[in-house]
Amino acid sequence: MRMSVVAVAVLALGLTACGSGTDSGTGGGKDGTLVVGATAVPAGEVLTYVRDHLAAGASLKLEIKEFTDYVLPNTALQEGELDANLYQNQPYLDDFNKARGTDLVPVVKPYLPPMGVYSHKVEDVTQLADGATVAVPGDTTNEGRALKLLEAGGVIELKAGAGADASPADVTANPRHLKIRELEAAQLPRSLDDVDAAVINNNFAQDAGLSPAKDAILVESAKDNPYANLLAVRRGDEDDPRVKKLAELLVSPEVRTFIKDKYHGSVLPVTGG
């Protein structure tokens, strides 16, 4: 059964946010610290670079809180426990706002973490056998993104006009009779021994030691890709001077160079955000 953002939120109750700072209270410490939520890779690593190498020069105090799922960073932001977060793309944010009644907005888009298909059994998606099982993220927008990637790989076709919320019901051609298994996104790397292939979000792939550039049997193209990750805030906080400073740093030449040198194509900087 296809999971919406609301359904994923239920699963998220069993997951814990791991604070990298000492202040576990509300966002925006009394000393003016900007509290930013992120998944560990690549968002947490990019923010750590900014905190350790650039923030002081911009007179910015930055605290990073890491999360292990896709729901809690947004609920924590909406509830004021965070000042901003970095981990999601625009289609996911739009779906989250619609499903949860939140009012979160993008500020800047610093990088693209390309989604990939991984397998312990085949070296190319065209080698998937008849009836093979392919695991995909169960949340609405990431599932649609995964299905579009499988379509780009030539193993399925989606109905004309299928958008970011495409589902298995939109598959119009499936010559290999692939079985689509919907799983919580964080579980996908652990599923690789149990399925024939899995479409895995970049941060969870890298957190599991998988390189999209080296290990994926199919990977998204960066050209005209709508899934660049964005810095999000509550509506009305876009002009917070601390947020503006962080936004500028995230698209700075220093951060673009860091991304290129660290990820070697597994994460791609977005020039100008």
From TrEMBL:
Q: How does it sit in the membrane?
A: Lipid-anchor
Q: Does the keyword Lipoprotein apply?
A: yes
What the entry lists under InterPro entries is as follows: Lipoprotein_NlpA (IPR004872)
User: What's the superkingdom here?
Assistant: Bacteria
> What keywords sit in the KW lines?
Lipoprotein, Membrane, Palmitate, Signal
Subcellular location per the Swiss-Prot or TrEMBL entry: Membrane
The positions making up the signal sequence are: 1-19
Fetch the Pfam families from UniProt: Lipoprotein_9
Member of which family? Belongs to the nlpA lipoprotein family.
Fetch the PANTHER family from UniProt: D-METHIONINE-BINDING LIPOPROTEIN METQ, METHIONINE-BINDING LIPOPROTEIN METQ
- Name of the protein in its database record: Lipoprotein
